[in-house]
Amino acid sequence: xxxxxxxxxxxxxxxxxxxxxxxxxxxxxxxxxxxxxxxxxxxxxxxxxxxxxxxxxxxxxxxxxxxxxxxxxxxxxxxxxxxxxxxxxxxxxxxxxxxxxxxxxxxxxxxxxxxxxxxxxxxxxxxxxxxxxxxxxxxxxxxxxxxxxxxxxxxxxxxxxxxxxxxxxxxxxxxxxxxxxxxxxxxxxxxxxxxxxxxxxxxxxxxxxxxxxxxxxxxxxxxxxxxxxxxxxxxxxxxxxxxxxxxxxxxxxxxxxxxxxxxxxxxxxxxxxxxxxxxxxxxxxxxxxxxxxxxxxxxxxxxxxxxxxxxxxxxxxxxxxxxxxxxxxxxxxxxxxxxxxxxxxxxxxxxxxxxxxxxxxxxxxxxxxxxxxxxxxxxxxxxxxxxxxxxxxxxxxxxxxxxxxxxxxxxxxxxxxxxxxxxxxxxxxxxxxxxxxxxxxxxx
Length: 444
Hints:
With 444 residues, this protein is an alpha/beta fold. The protein folds into two domains: 125 residues, no CATH class; 294 residues, 3-Layer(aba) Sandwich (Rossmann fold), CATH 3.40.50. It contains 18 helices and 15 strands. The strands form four sheets. Strands 13-12-11-14-15 form a five-stranded parallel beta sheet, with helices on both faces. It starts with 6 loop residues before the first strand and ends in a 7-residue tail after the last helix.
């Protein structure tokens, strides 16, 4: 016999629902509708739970996590929903249900879907995932000039929407390496502030330098010098001792090495900014830009070919998809999983982050790019595409010629190569063991 959900415990802080065009109650009603597509009209950052009788619906924006866990009580099943695994664990302990917990029993709501649970009990039925974002693929003409303009126009528009709901006096920080994504964000924000008659002095380009030896600091200076924006530069220097990969594992509750490494340097940067500027709140980054324009080395992943990369919808944003065998129930896939490396780190130090590249309108333009026609089966053409498209778009929208440097990961640009090898020696198995050990005192 199955029993309806007795209770829903929502651990998501209402203050973190940053909705631009409607209140939380109106947004929840869209989750409950039989047609999930109106959820796409919810603008902003959200992680929402809605209940109607025995039916519970959950949905989130791409930029943040939303997890759930089904506990068993004498009165019936209890659904616990929150952003973090450790929050769920603490709630179970508080109610005397610690023995039911294991981190692998938690589930992540996949981005771009409404997840519905109904009549949960014994046995537990699988949730139903209904997609609300399905942009058409490859419908733009194979013209980099047209594509670039459309892409950066969408970037500009999302930044405008975000800026409209912010305190006009609040300073804005951009974690800045001089790379394509952080460069496009900085230049577009600068143009937007000028167009609105506001002072670009609100902007600050924060560049991390570990032990003063990273290449990003030099690259950032060169970028800002070429675009006439040297006054925005601020290098944040931290010692190598400030980088702790195991701390990053705990913060992001994940163990994928590249995500752990990125989170470790992000934590060092954000901690140093917080120490220097106790009241700073707004941070705008370029997360999601690599995923949108498929700028990852295919050769490093034996599961990928250029055909699979250019022909699978939202591959880097969502992974292989919720219906695939490779889909992780605990973490989901792609940037839908990786968003935690940014969101959790920013939350740890009280920052309110935003990346326009994670917004559906920007992603929709990226999905409309005819990657197959533009790359002709060449990995090298694919890798060159992002810089070319974004550079053209930035010129068309801002009038500035954006320097384009070779791609480099955040953790590799903030420190010297030999230091990176010393800082990040952990294998995935070690990070995974550390994560599981942190929960070893609870559950089975």
